[in-house]
Amino acid sequence: MRVLRKVTAVAMASAMVVSMAGCGGGAKETTAAATEAPTTAATEAATEAATEAAAAASEAATEAAAATTGDYADKKVGISIYKFDDNFMTLYRTELERYLTEDLGFKKENITIMDGKNDQAEQTNQIDNFINQGVDVLILNLVQSSSAPSVTDKCNEAGIPVVYINREPDAAEEQRWKDEGIKATYVGADARQSGTFQGEEIAELENHGDANGDGVVSYIMVQGDPENVDAQYRTEYSVKALTDAGVKVEELLKQRGDWDQAKGQQIVQDALTQFGDKIDVVFCNNDAMALGALAAIQAADRKVGEDIYIVGVDALTEAVQNVMEGKMTGTVFNDHISQAKTAADIACDFLNGKDVANVNMVDYVKVTNENAQQILDIVK
């Protein structure tokens, strides 16, 4: 069982009762199973207090920054993002840079953020350059999570700690860091939880997602990169939540969309042509693909909430707005704010010589029409 450092969503910090990390202090470690999700009651209580909790989280972050034990003005941070034109990672890296400079005191000129261009060879060259330049810590959003072992070994040999974000290496690699005392860690969110929330958003509908009333929820799955663990788990657990609720399901199509809005639109457009009214639900592994899927649904004169349902993940501003307006059934808040802050805080922990858990998780939050405005106030 992995040891997780659980960090609640920034907007839900006070309600979810989870310890949040700060550079000057550690975070409470838990041995909860990675598949644990907050109860519906806890989620509802959390969203009711979203605005107050966001303010509390902001204050906590300020206090954490003030409590840091190191001077980071001359510390160099190398950051590589798998590709800059990913909607979610744009939000993430913007918050990461802001928090490092405004709250933690790193100089902007000492923070280098590179675009991996969705090319592992390109990103590997960037990492090699960071190592040659002697950066003090690396924060990496890998193009291919399977490259983590070789990247980790390079960084370890150079004496540079590495914080992996968003794309999780496999459990064996994470365990190796712990067993061998390697200064490497992963900060992210358990994708099983996000998939479960997607399925619950459908299962909790009055008709359980059976839009055409034939007794079976027939769905199409617009998947991200199948190698990516988030895509794998969101695909599996969204459907599992339906079957666990006793809903009979039928997969009509599962197709790779690479997290891309245009690809999501094309996949759903073709599926609607092929399957027509048989499609009850469109599951999308992220909101970018969901926004593309929505465009295809609207072009086909289908109406979300009446004859079809659609859910995504990330809580992009446009997606949350669509949930508020009934144009999307739901999404799941992938808390880039807490994740970015946690990644930066843990980088500080490494610089301060502190012990760091090998896996650090941030909770997702289910987003429906009932709490969409509160989430929008946070993400916009």
TrEMBL record:
<dbReference type="InterPro" id="IPR044085">
    <property type="entry name" value="MglB-like_PBP1"/>
</dbReference>
<dbReference type="InterPro" id="IPR028082">
    <property type="entry name" value="Peripla_BP_I"/>
</dbReference>
<keyword id="KW-0479">Metal-binding</keyword>
<dbReference type="Pfam" id="PF13407">
    <property type="entry name" value="Peripla_BP_4"/>
</dbReference>
<keyword id="KW-0813">Transport</keyword>
<dbReference type="GO" id="GO:0046872">
    <property type="term" value="F:metal ion binding"/>
</dbReference>
<dbReference type="InterPro" id="IPR050555">
    <property type="entry name" value="Bact_Solute-Bind_Prot2"/>
</dbReference>
<protein>
    <recommendedName>
        <fullName>D-galactose/methyl-galactoside binding periplasmic protein MglB</fullName>
    </recommendedName>
</protein>
<dbReference type="GO" id="GO:0030246">
    <property type="term" value="F:carbohydrate binding"/>
</dbReference>
<comment type="subunit">
    <text>The ABC transporter complex is composed of one ATP-binding protein (MglA), two transmembrane proteins (MglC) and a solute-binding protein (MglB).</text>
</comment>
<keyword id="KW-0732">Signal</keyword>
<dbReference type="GO" id="GO:0030288">
    <property type="term" value="C:outer membrane-bounded periplasmic space"/>
</dbReference>
<keyword id="KW-0106">Calcium</keyword>
<keyword id="KW-0762">Sugar transport</keyword>
<feature type="domain" description="Periplasmic binding protein">
    <location>
        <begin position="77"/>
        <end position="355"/>
    </location>
</feature>
<dbReference type="InterPro" id="IPR025997">
    <property type="entry name" value="SBP_2_dom"/>
</dbReference>
<keyword id="KW-0574">Periplasm</keyword>
<feature type="signal peptide">
    <location>
        <begin position="1"/>
        <end position="21"/>
    </location>
</feature>
